[in-house]
Each structure stands twice: as structure tokens, then as C-alpha cells.
Amino acid sequence: MSIKIKTEDEIQKMRVAGKLAADVIEMIQPHVIAGVTTGHLNQIMHDYMVNEQQTIPATLNYHGFPASSCISINQVVCHGIPDDKKKLKNGDIVNIDVTVIKEGYHGDTSRMFEIGTVKPFASRLNKVAHECLWLGIQQVKPDATLYDVALAIQTHAEKNNFTVVKEYCGHGIGADFHEAPQVLHYTQPELKEIILKPGMVFTIEPMINLGKSDVKLLADNWTVVTKDRKLSAQWEHTLTVTQTGFEIFTLRTDEQPVLPVH
Ligand code: MF3
Ligand code: CO
Ligand code: CO
């Protein structure tokens, strides 16, 4: 499938959708504390999307996914199902991933949260995963390739002795939740042929593991965990290629571009 170039009108709608997705993540932040259930967090976000934003939670019923967000704790890599019986506890690291639809267009973003005091290695994993996202984003400009994006991410992860998940990737996004291209976070020669052009819109969402890169799908057919049950971290933004570089649609108000300290 070829990669769609969005019109200026579509870009404007995606700017709006992206901002709304970022707003959901900002809204939920003070609620992400020890003792709260992931089911309750999902309910707050669902109500906010539907009642305050008049957005559609894109994950709800998406290929049968049963919730309005994905909440992935510790060894859960992605697609964690919110659960009224699952409480966050001190020391957990948690990814919350939300996708909204507004006027037919999607905005998709996620971030890590730390509950109370987390182990230094857990904090470092979160930080490096965040840096991986930003290093990938900083490759984005006309005539760069998705190989450049993947290389920046993989190099930084491996330099820190972490690994990159291969089974799940970023994606083109627009009127469809997931469309071409697949945005891999590890290098493959074929990626050199995917040349970035202004008006392309996609996500970058590296999943970085503390141990081995292998993952396993649980029996619920959604929850993805690390095979070695060590920690995994993920951050995600939706962005477009501009004439000179990139524009991030899902930037939060508190967020500064991140550059790793070498
Ligand atoms: N938001 C996820 C992504 O970044 C997709 C979740 S699909 C679901 O692409 F069905 F698991 F919700
Ligand atoms: Co995504
Ligand atoms: Co997402």
C-alpha cells in the first residue's frame, strides 16, 4: 500500500485530533497514583473523551479491543487491558496509550508514568525509551528515510544495553487508525526505500525492553508481555513531515524536546 499524502485540510484536522489525544494524557496524569485501578483510569478517560471532548475513543471495539485506552504495567509491552481489579502500586512503571477520533481523523499518543518511587533501572529505561522516541522524531524531514528513524532508535537503545521490540511498530495514521507505512523501530534494509515526503503522517512509538527483545501474547489475545518478564517502556507521538522537518500533533504543554546526555 502506498503512503497517503494528507491535504492541508486533513493536516489541520489531525492537528486538532492530536492535541485532543495529548489533552487526555495530561488530564489523567494526577489520577495515575498508587491504589487506583486501571479500570477506573480507563473510565475517567472514556468519560472525558466522550462527554468533554466529544471525541470517539478509537481503541474501543477496535478489532474487538474492550476498552478506551491501553494501560500496560511493568513487563506488559503494549495493549494492556484496563481492569477494575488491577491496582497500580508503588514502584510500577506504566504506559497509558490513547487514540481519539475527531471529525474522522485520529490522534494517537502514549507516555510512561512512574508510581511513587521506582527502581533506578526502571527510571533509566523510561528515560532512554523517551530519548529513543525523540531521536527517531529528529530524523524526520523530507528525503530522509524510515531507515534513519529506525537506526537512531535502535542505536540509542542498544548503546544503553536495552533491546527494541520487533513485533509491534509505529504506523501511518489519518482517517484510518493504522495505515501504511509500518514504522519499524529497528533497522531493515528495505526501510531505505521508504522516503519521507511533506504531508505524510505517522506515529513513532518505540517499545524498549530491559532484558531480551522477545515478546509473548497472553491468552486474552491482547496483552503483550516480555518473554523474560523484565520491564518494557514505550512513548508515542503522532507527527507529520513538513517542508523543513516535522510537526508533532500530540505534544503536551509540559513537554520539552528531549536530547540524550551522552
Ligand atoms: N494505540 C495503539 C497504537 O499505538 C493501538 C492500540 S489498538 C488496541 O497503535 F486495539 F489495542 F487498542
Ligand atoms: Co500507534
Ligand atoms: Co497508541
Profile the largest sheet.
4 strands, antiparallel
Mean pLDDT, as a whole number? Answer: 97
Helix count, per DSSP? Answer: 4
User: Which fold name corresponds to the CATH topology?
Assistant: Creatine Amidinohydrolase
Indicate how many domains the architecture comprises: 1
Taken from the alpha-carbon principal axes, the silhouette is: globular
| Poorly predicted runs of 5 or more residues | none
Ions, cofactors and other bound molecules: 2-amino-4-trifluoromethylsulfanyl-butyric acid, cobalt (II) ion
Order of helices and strands: HHEEEEEHHEEEEEEEEEE
For the record, the CATH architecture stands as Alpha-Beta Complex
Structural category is: alpha+beta
CATH H-level name... which superfamily? Creatinase/methionine aminopeptidase superfamily
What's the CATH first level?
Alpha Beta
For the terminal residues, how far apart are their CA atoms?
A: 39 Å
Strand content: 15-25%
Instruction: Return Rg in Å.
Output: 17 Å
Number of E strands: 15
Structural description of this entry:
The chain has 262 residues and is of the alpha+beta class. It has one domain (8-248): Creatine Amidinohydrolase, CATH 3.90.230.10. The protein has 4 helices and 15 strands. It has helices at 8-28, 38-53, 120-137, 146-159; strands at 56-57, 70-73, 76-78, 93-102, 105-114, 163-164, 170-172, 179-183, 201-204, 207-209, 215-217, 224-226, 232-234, 237-241, 246-248. Strands 1, 2, 4 and 5 form a 4-stranded antiparallel sheet that branches. Strands 3-12-11 form a 3-stranded antiparallel sheet, with no helix packed on it. It has a 3-stranded antiparallel sheet with strand order 6-10-13, covered by helices on one side. Strand 4 and strand 5 form a beta hairpin. The longest helix has 21 residues, at 8-28. The radius of gyration is 17 Å and the shape is globular. The model has no long low-confidence stretch (mean pLDDT 97). 2-amino-4-trifluoromethylsulfanyl-butyric acid binds next to strand 4.
